[in-house]
């Protein structure tokens, strides 16, 4: 899937601006951004619910706007606005069975049985966790190539969360599917995704491949002799914390040369800390106070 | 795929709606037949005739300019039990020399006469509410139940979604009207004995077609409203007001005719009230009116079809889903509403001409003009408030929802 120059304005306010990215086969991609950054809007545009002002979404070189049939490769259930509430699980399954020609009925029946759902039950009678689990069952059974999941772990207890993640991982791995998961829960997302798209100021500002990131990036805690942080550190890093003379920074492109250059300043403390996705999120999306890093 | 999805979603409702439509038509036939039978078997009928025969007139004598009394009980019975007569006020037609003998023959037909059944009792009114209501819900219900979110994410174009909804949901429903009304026509023609059934099957079927065209227009115009609005309070309210105005539309048109007749001093005629065939009977309407209804309905559906392709669901709570249609919609709303209010409810022109021509009162023309302008201005302002000031509808909807939650 290729997304090109997607722009969306809602109520005269730009929500998405020149969004560009690609989703490759068998990738699990996290969509990260602050509240109101446009994550759900982006998923809704990709699903065809919102029409963008400009831009295109193509699957196998076919635009979803000119060849809507390719949307059969996209699965998305809107968490806030959906029709499921009024129907039984059986009826909902029937709708998705019709909508997705590759719907795996056998897999669906197995999963429903395994997770002890009664198909006669009404969707609104399910707990939030069960609803999320059922949505994931539908998603994996649809056999769509691209699963768009909006905060799929939000508000779930640990047991259900593990079930949802387990189910998702099992399916995605087995069938080489691609998932775009928007989430606030960064520690969880970190264990799942291969790649992270960072949404800020209506655009995707970063496209991290976590494996590369873990190799290249470093989180350091430094204490220098003076309160002034060397410009070398300021220019090459993003600050996470600054208390007294203790500064915690993230270097996205760390190298041996950089390490040597920092050590030339003879820091009192030079300590490498474990780098998490949360750190990257914080470093890129946190509003920095003016003059905090001197 | 889309057909199966629509079938899955609407099959029960659609079957129920079709059964209800056909059932109401059959009920009409049975009900009218029962009313006729009751009149036929009325044991007090003779006594009634004897008591009031001097007051019961049969026709109008143009020479003596007075009503002619009934000649016999048989004559009275024939008049009472004949299924179709001319609608009120019939004095216009009797003054024209139209006698009962002419009306009572099934083969005699004039498209200028507003024939009515003597035995209907508002039972056909059900369709004039139910059909437009289903039309309104055709698109509005998917808009408000989150089903559009599902539909728009399917591997189908908006064009296909729209066309197939009309084909697989609207069309079967509309056909059920045709089936129901045809059954009614056949049944009523069979059930009422020939001497009293003064309409041919051909006349009844012509009426079925005209009635179908009218109901189809009511359906499509309501579907148009349902596809254009998104606000949960003001959307249905707009349709309800439109429905009420639509019911008064024939009265307005006839009123305009009568204003012209009055202005041109054609005193002995009434404008023929045969343009709108609101129930199946002897009155067959006019082919050009049917064509007009179909054309207007198709035009509205084409407009809705074009706009459906541009719906973006972030606006699904807005009063009007399509910002670019604000001005034409405002224009139509203002003109339609003020036309009906100016002709059906205030009607200053009929009063003006009556006073000026027949009352010989020196009355100024500025009075009806001013009245028309005031009504149009007020209507235009109200419509503008609803359409152009989104904050107004949003705030009011929120307030109503809060009130609803509190009382609930």
Give a nutshell description of this structure.
Chain A is an alpha/beta fold and 294 residues long. Chain A has 10 helices and 14 strands. In chain A, helix 3 runs antiparallel to helix 4.
- End-to-end C-alpha gap of chain B: 40 Å
Largest interface: A-B, 29 and 24 residues
> Can you summarize the main beta sheet of chain B?
2 strands, antiparallel
Report strand order across the widest sheet of chain A.
6-7-8-3-9-10
CATH class of the largest domain in chain A: Alpha Beta
How many β strands of chain B by DSSP?
A: 4
Biggest pleated sheet of chain A: 6 strands, mixed
Shape of chain B: globular
Tally of discrete structural domains of chain A: 2
Could you tell me the CATH topology label of the largest domain in chain A: Rossmann fold
> What structural category characterises the helix and strand content of chain A?
alpha/beta
Could you state the order of secondary-structure elements of chain B as H and E? HHEEHEHHEHHHHHHHHHH
Task: Round the mean pLDDT of chain A to the nearest integer and report it.
Answer: 85
CATH superfamily of the largest domain in chain A: P-loop containing nucleotide triphosphate hydrolases
Structural class of chain B: mainly alpha
Identify the strand order in the major beta sheet of chain B. Answer: 1-2
C-alpha Rg of chain A (nearest Å): 22 Å
| Helix segment tally of chain B | 15
> What's the quaternary structure here?
heterodimer
